[in-house]
Write a structure and sequence with these properties.
The chain is of the alpha/beta class and about 525 residues long. It is built from 19 helices and 15 strands. It is globular and about 75 Å long. This is Apolipoprotein N-acyltransferase.
């Protein structure tokens, strides 16, 4: 085969694309990532969840160097996280007493670090696999999955959450979890770009998956069913304790008075649920108060479930430990109740220091050695027993982990999550958090009770729909009924392994299918 000098240069230098100036391209990518927050709560403009990844796909499709592709992906990811997770600014600056300028730098560094996920997605898409919607969507899901475990995990801002209440697509959640919803959405977004490029054949997989999802929505299969027992009456207590007062020693008694007063008229309900750390001291320091509440609960045949820091003095070894291990926990007490759940997924630098041995030089980074030193609960814990039912628990941040919540839901009749989102003020963070709970309810086909300090306190049914909801930033009680359900969704049975296997298979096939149409064999 003979090649002209021009043809040879094109083959050897395919990375000088025609198109937008690099600076403008990076800016567009950053803005596309930043705009994604509009797709999530509280805004809920779900089409943005299609437009945002579609723009990134369109920017990456033209031929370019790996470096250019990485910068585009990095810009998109940085915009996504700097804006989408800006709620961290409230906890860092307002409650962490970090100067505003330093807090902004920390948010920017966080955005750059988390942006690497999309940076490497773009690089692999450009250099390793075939440039088409299936490989792009598969890479997207793998980077979302990696965010659930790499460097302790930060599983936030998934595309699938934008479709939590769009049941024509979220009907896939009980089948294969939030990643399946994300996959179809991103695949559809990239396929639309290919349709605009007059390559409509790429729409076929998207249309097929949308038909499957819509069929599931219309058929409305009941993956789980009511247990057949009467619904339980519940009262969720929202104390609305200011975060800057919550852990002050001199305010502890006042906090206990607030919750006791709010609960006074709720004794007699089946379940009374208090939020995360609503008792702001170890159980050994609140023996008298706890005994009084338990006595009231038993007298009125009420199950009392509360969040409390739990000190395990029985596990203390004076020869090796500086103090007994303690846990962020939830305990079931009172009538027809037993069990203690210890939080498994701790907040890095908030509840513990990751890589403790390496970072001993930063013992007071979060302002409290005690807060940073919570121990991690076992991943093999029994559910709480409540009024003849198994109750699965998730504390605050860990409800964002699909697989952790799935394991905790197995063998249960309903679920609870308790939280203290006061750390994030009036930002979008608490509302994004609530949206994740809705997705967990969908995935597992279970009702959720969600009690929080400042909101959003809510009752969510097995379809992810909010049945009852309390206003934020009010001292109030949310009353309602919950239904016990039995049976397992496909997601509960198999977890995320099927969807991850399919993604890996798609990428392998895309890699093997990436062959030059006219390989250069010789040059004369």
């Amino acid at each position: 085969m003979r090649l002209s000098t021009v043809d040879l240069q094109k083959r050897l230098n395919p990375d000088k694309p025609k198109g937008l100036h690099m600076g403008l391209t990076v800016l567009i990518a950053w803005l596309a990532g930043a705009a994604f927050i509009l797709a999530l709560a509280p805004y809920g403009i779900w089409p943005v969840a299609l437009v945002s990844p579609a723009i990134l796909y369109a920017l990456l499709v033209p031929a370019m160097t790996g470096r250019r592709a990485f910068l585009i992906g990095q810009a998109y990811g940085t915009g996504l996280w700097c804006v989408g997770a800006f709620w961290l600014y409230t906890s860092i600056h307002v409650y962490g007493d970090t100067p505003a300028w330093l807090a902004l730098i920390m948010i920017a560094l966080m955005g750059l670090g988390m942006g690497l996920f999309h940076g490497f997605l773009a690089l692999i898409f450009n250099r390793v696999v075939g440039k088409q919607p299936l490989s792009f969507a598969a890479l997207w899901i793998l980077q979302e999955w990696m965010k659930t475990w790499l460097f302790t995990g930060f599983p936030w801002l998934f595309v699938g959450y934008a479709f939590t209440e769009q049941y024509w697509l979220s009907s896939l959640a009980p089948v294969a979890g939030v990643f399946a919803v994300s996959f179809v959405a991103v695949l559809l977004a990239a396929s639309i770009i290919e349709l605009l490029r007059r390559r409509g054949g790429y729409m076929i997989p998207s249309i097929a998956l949308l038909i499957i999802s819509s069929t599931l929505w219309l058929i409305n299969p009941q993956w789980t069913k009511p247990k057949g027992t009467p619904d339980l009456s519940v009262s969720l207590i929202q104390g609305n304790i200011p975060q800057d007062l919550k852990w002050l020693t001199e305010y502890q008694i006042e906090t206990l008075k607030i919750y006791a007063t709010l609960t006074r008229d709720e004794w007699g309900r089946d379940i009374v649920l208090w939020p995360e750390s609503s008792i702001p001291m170890f159980q050994t320091e609140a023996v008298g108060f706890i005994s009084e509440m338990v006595a009231m609960a038993k007298e009125t045949d009420t199950t009392w479930v509360t969040g409390i820091p739990y000190k395990d003095e029985a596990a203390f070894d004076a020869s090796t430990d500086k103090y007994p291990p303690f846990y962020n926990s939830v305990v079931a007490l009172g009538a027809q109740a037993e069990g203690l759940y210890k939080k498994q997924r701790l907040v890095p630098f908030g509840e513990y220091i990751p890589f403790q041995g390496v970072l001993d030089i930063l013992p007071n980074l979060a302002g409290s050695q005690d807060i940073m030193s919570y121990s991690r609960g076992s991943d093999q814990q029994s559910p709480l027993r409540v009024r003849g039912h198994n109750l699965g628990a998730a504390i605050c941040y860990e409800v964002a982990y699909p697989d952790t919540t799935r394991k905790n839901a197995i063998g249960t009749d309903f679920l609870l999550t308790i939280s203290n989102d006061a750390w994030f003020g009036t930002s979008a963070g608490p509302l994004q958090h609530l949206q994740m709970v809705q997705m967990r309810a969908l995935e597992n086909g279970r009702w959720f009770m969600r009690a929080t300090n400042t909101g959003v306190t809510a009752i969510i049914d097995h379809k992810g729909r909010i049945v009852e909801r309390a206003p934020q930033f009010e001292r109030t009680v949310l009353r309602g009924d919950i239904q016990a359900r039995v049976g397992n969704t496909p997601f509960m049975r198999f977890g995320q392994y099927p969807i991850l296997f399919i993604m890996a298979l798609l990428l392998i096939l895309s890699y093997l299918g990436k062959r030059p149409k006219n390989p250069v064999r010789s040059v004369k």
